[in-house]
């Protein structure tokens, strides 16, 4: 793998009211081009860390790849303050990608930037097969997983500006935490790491340090993640998509309170 730009950069600040000059750590935000079989498909603004997992998670959660087996190789390249991730994918998936004619300029907030038509929104997910354990998921379990996340947000502890996505077992044990300046990117990094380890189909749920947008719910539903819990509230569209997909959606998860929306 190429040597990547650092995820944090030092910056001199003046702190008030003490009027002290100190050095802070600031989150890096660099363009990351995702290139499929030599064709650039998307340029995302992201934290330059865990980029192989990010690219694989993006490809799976966006429906570009049907499975990990459709990805034959991933190579990360870096040039100055920009990065490029080259993915070699199956001809079937690549042909479908070209036919979709999507040009994603990047997602930092809204989740629909760059699509070329309303039909590309994909607002009607296929209902997921129910999982018996999810019916027993309790608020105390969800809150347990979210409470375990801050100590594992190493980069955010240093800079205070990164989102996190975590994976929890059905009994609330947090096993993975990935960070990024963008909440969508953090989720893709998490999903990609699970895919790399062959763990995408295992029972568990996603916890996130953000609100629940339409895009986060849609990404989870594509990969049969049946529960998502976020610290802030969801949007109305996120609730509708979750309801259609059969995804259990939790929001405003701040101990001792939590809200289940679907």
TrEMBL record:
Return the similarity comment.
Belongs to the FdhD family.
The source's superkingdom equals Bacteria
What is this protein's function?
Required for formate dehydrogenase (FDH) activity. Acts as a sulfur carrier protein that transfers sulfur from IscS to the molybdenum cofactor prior to its insertion into FDH.
Q: What lineage does the source organism belong to?
A: Bacteria, Pseudomonadati, Pseudomonadota, Betaproteobacteria, Burkholderiales
**Which InterPro entries does the annotation name?**
Cytidine_deaminase-like, FdhD
Record-given protein name: Sulfur carrier protein FdhD
Identify the Gene3D superfamilies for this entry.
Answer: 3.10.20.10, Cytidine Deaminase, domain 2 (3.40.140.10)
NCBIfam families, per database record: fdhD_narQ
**Keywords per UniProt:** Cytoplasm, Molybdenum cofactor biosynthesis
Natural source organism: Rhodoferax ferrireducens
- One Pfam assignment: FdhD-NarQ
Q: Which residues form the active site?
A: 110
Looking up PANTHER family in the UniProt record yields: FORMATE DEHYDROGENASE (PTHR30592), SULFUR CARRIER PROTEIN FDHD (PTHR30592:SF1)
The gene for this chain is fdhD
Q: Where in the cell is it found?
A: Cytoplasm
